[in-house]
Specification:
heterodimer, A: about 290 residues, mainly alpha, MetI-like fold, 12 helices, about 80% helix, B: mainly alpha, two-stranded antiparallel sheet, globular
């Protein structure tokens, strides 16, 4: 009896905590079907006054600023994570071949953006670009725009994550691979692409996913770096502080693909684990049979 | 061609975009309109109001971390004792919100506290509401490292403890808890340091009425009317960097103690 009570108490606790985490998401999705029109205007700031069911918010989403900043977020994430993966992977391969002292120096500096609070990373970039732009203005040249600024910042804070996920793979891989490939007649680039990179591919993939996540997730750095055009989270922050409010349909548009993706990945993993379990059971049974 | 050549593009990038930007903080702290001056730097250091806000932020971050730890530990513990496939599925439920834009979720809390649960907001007050949303935001970051450590814990140790006559409470406090310290330490680092610098939650939940240290820095750099005061902002950032450095060092110290203890064991 007591055991049963404790068990159900555990599930109640887990359920409550899951519910706590999902309250704002559910709230936004429910209100994404709310009618926000006040006269001729749309006032998303009234995020609590139910006026009737409509699908208009979804139609409005992609014509407004929210849609364009969502697209910009995806573009910046895709481009910056690809560039960060290329530079970071090459860097890891190079750093690995360096002498210990230089290697440690570079790795320590690379850790800075990971240890620094986002806030500090953001303002350092802000000051750098303000300085560069003031010099460019003096020279009568065009200033650096928001998109290149965002790209540079996102690439910079992503590269260390790529380096630190490729590094362990390199340690596992053979040191001789590169030399052996060259001895067998490969050019340096061929040796890289045909011998070294295939061997460290899992590290590169996880580095890429990290870079992608960091970029999609970023608010603070983008907020300080950009002036006019920016990514989704910056748009949400500035319109949440203003009187405009944010179109709650955004929550559904982000949530549904995310959950689908994670479910697919997770179900696959579970079925793989299941398969493995069955396989190992079979092996055990066979062993027993053999012993008999 | 030597392999180290492949790192050269990154080394150039690193100097341009990691090292040089960091130097700007120190440059702008003692430079106003291109002239070297210590007046603003010293005036900011002497500003008692700023130190008060820093202390309030540290206290707020401490409370956030403590509540997150108290809420997250049971979650991670329960999950780690479940069947692997079930635990995997439920843990995904806990981590999905982490991938949803956190500014959007904070914005939703702003509306919920204003329209759906105004009584809760009255009960918690401004500070309590900010604390609750901070706990909300950082909870998954505490669950993750705890769950990772607890699920890798060798279950035979628990059996051994029980065989040797310890009841489940003693087993928990003398075996499970000490072995999960690495997870606790990394959970604390993942929550405490970002919580000191959080400025989104106070700005949105407090509607500009409640300031933490992050807001002071934000306001120094991003005023609505044109360029902010770089000297003040840079000085505040230097103080922040030093505080973060000190707390990281303290944290590492604990981590190392634990590792050595484990080795001696």
């Amino acid at each position: 009896m007591v055991k049963k009570a404790v068990r159900s108490l555990k599930y109640v606790y887990l359920g409550l905590m899951v519910f706590f985490l999902y309250i704002p998401i559910i709230y936004l999705i429910v209100y994404s079907f709310n009618d926000f029109t006040v006269g001729r205007r749309v006032a998303y700031a009234n995020l609590g006054k139910w006026k009737g069911f409509t699908l208009q918010n979804y139609a409005n989403l992609f014509s407004g600023e929210a849609g364009s900043s969502l697209l910009l977020t995806l573009e910046i994430a895709a481009i910056s994570s690809i560039i960060a993966t290329v530079i970071g992977t090459a860097a890891a391969i190079g750093i690995y071949a360096m002498k210990k002292r230089t290697r440690n120096l570079i790795l320590n500096v690379s850790e800075l953006p990971m240890v620094n609070p986002d806030l500090v990373t953001g303002i350092t970039f802000m000051m750098l670009f303000a300085f560069v732009n003031s010099v460019l203005v003096k020279l009568g040249l065009k200033q650096v725009g928001d998109i290149p600024k965002l790209l540079i910042a996102h690439i910079s804070f992503s590269i260390p994550y790529v380096i630190f996920s490729v590094m362990p793979r390199l340690r596992q891989s053979s040191d001789m691979l590169y030399e052996a490939a060259m001895d067998l007649g490969c050019s340096p680039l061929q040796a890289l692409f045909k011998a070294v990179i295939p061997d460290i591919m899992p590290g590169i993939t996880s580095g890429f996913i990290m870079a992608l996540t960091m970029s999609l997730d970023d608010f603070v750095v983008s907020y300080f770096v950009s002036d006019l055009k920016s990514v989704l989270s910056v748009y949400i922050y500035s319109s949440a502080r203003g009187a405009k409010g944010v179109n709650p349909a955004l929550a559904t548009v982000i949530f549904i693909p995310l959950v689908t993706l994670l479910l697919i990945v997770n179900l696959r993993r579970i079925s793989k684990e299941r398969e493995y379990e069955i396989q190992s059971k079979k092996v055990k049974l066979k062993d027993k049979g053999g012993n008999l | 061609m030597k392999r180290r050549v492949f790192a050269y593009p990154y080394v150039v990038w690193m100097i341009l975009f990691i090292v040089i930007p960091m130097l700007f903080i120190f440059y702008y702290a003692v430079n106003v309109n291109g002239q070297f001056t210590l007046t603003k730097f010293i005036a900011t250091l002497k500003d008692a109001g700023k130190w008060k806000v820093l202390w309030a932020s540290v206290v707020m971050a401490f409370k956030t971390t403590l509540i997150c730890l108290l809420l997250a530990y049971p979650i991670a513990y329960i999950l780690s004792n479940m069947k692997k496939s079930v635990a995997g599925f439920i843990s995904v439920l806990f981590f999905v919100p982490m991938w949803m834009n956190f500014v959007l979720r904070t914005y939703a809390w702003q509306a919920i506290l204003e329209y759906l649960l105004p009584d809760l907001k009255k009960f918690l007050g401004l500070e309590g509401s900010v604390l609750m949303v901070l706990v909300y935001d950082f909870l998954p970051f505490m669950i993750m490292p705890l769950y990772n450590t607890l699920s890798k814990l060798d279950k035979s140790l628990l059996e051994a403890s029980r065989d040797l006559g310890a009841n489940s409470a003693v087993t928990f406090f003398r075996v499970v808890l000490p072995l999960s310290v690495p997870g606790i330490v990394s959970g604390i680092t993942m929550v405490f340091i970002p919580a000191i610098t959080a400025f989104t939650v106070p700005a949105l939940i407090g509607n500009g009425m409640y300031h933490l240290y992050g807001n002071e820095i934000e306001l120094a750099f991003k005023t609505l009317s044109g360029q902010g005061d770089y000297a003040v902002g840079s000085t505040l950032s230097i103080i922040l960097l030093i505080s973060v450095l000190v707390s990281t060092l303290i944290m590492n110290h604990f981590d190392k103690d634990q590792q050595q203890g484990g080795q001696l064991w």
